[in-house]
Amino acid sequence: MEPKLSPPLAHEHLKDILSNEEFVDILTTFPKERGIISSYSYQYQGFWHNPVHLHGIINFQKHYEPRENDIFLATAPKSGTTWLRAILYALINRKTYPPNDPNHPLLSKNSHSLIPPFELLKPSEYDSVCNSSDPSTRIFGTHCAFGSLPESITDIAKSSNRKIIYLCRDIKDTFISNFHFANKANLRPSPISLEDAFDLYCKGISAGGPIWNHILGYWKESLEKPDKVLFMRYEEMKSEPHFQLRRLAHFLGKPFSQEEENLCLVDQIISLCSFDVMSKLEVNKTGKGKQLISTGALFRKGVVGDWKNILTADMASRLDQITEEKFRGSGLSL
Length: 334
Ligand code: PAP
Hints:
Sulfotransferase_dom, about 10% strand, P-loop_NTPase, three-stranded antiparallel sheet, 7 strands, four-stranded parallel sheet, binds 3'-phosphate-adenosine-5'-diphosphate, 17 helices, alpha/beta, single chain, globular
């Protein structure tokens, strides 16, 4: 039986996926709930996904062939993915494209097309990802939970020099960003109310959710394997961008040289990737992403603490309470 999906989501990519009978048969075996960003979510390996992402994850688990130095930038949706993808791209490619280059790729391409999420790639496209001057390195984005990544990435004995960077964000701000995006991205047949979205989010039914489990999965790995998994926070990127960028460069084994420091490369990357610069670029105002989502939907306010303008005191304290319970004993607080 074909799963019921909203008409706006029935773009070419999804049509292709749903013409794959084998996948549709699998899909109908997964628990299904209403979604926040898309009409429906399906639960796979403990996490909720829209059908397009789920199809991409299952494909990646089956068909990913690792390269020595592949890098994965993992986030729960709306944690600052667009920003960190831009920073990572500028950092890794700083020799080929100095950040003050007037023809820098980030000035004409959205960071999601430079660092694609593997969920939206066909297996035949993995090999052609070419976003680093070093052919042994591809950079993939993902919203996938740690436990759903292929073993060739997660198993330290098999993972070679492959590295994972994880970015998280205050849960209340992440929720608010999800809520606004849901009503902007046009993947739903009708808008979702704040109350409905909040209820689903608290139950863990959000893209890549439960968000707490998503964050904890990477947090624990970052404690056990600090050379493999770098855990970053949106708020720290905001408050101490220079320190965090140097930390990222160091983790990747590509620290800034004295000469690069003298040339103020750190400053230049931060400035190039800032909300102010990125959100005003034509490509980020009028472009379309792979799911035909307007790139403009990826740039809203880009501030810390916007939840205060939208959540009631009761909602805020409910989310805080869930976060406290879920993170208890983990050493993590957000
Ligand atoms: P995604 O998961 O769909 O890729 P993601 O980029 O993680 O989305 O999240 C979008 C949020 O990052 C938006 O937050 P807001 O809704 O609270 O405003 C967006 O504004 C913010 N954002 C995008 N680019 C930047 C940037 N350069 N600096 C800071 N925040 C940014």
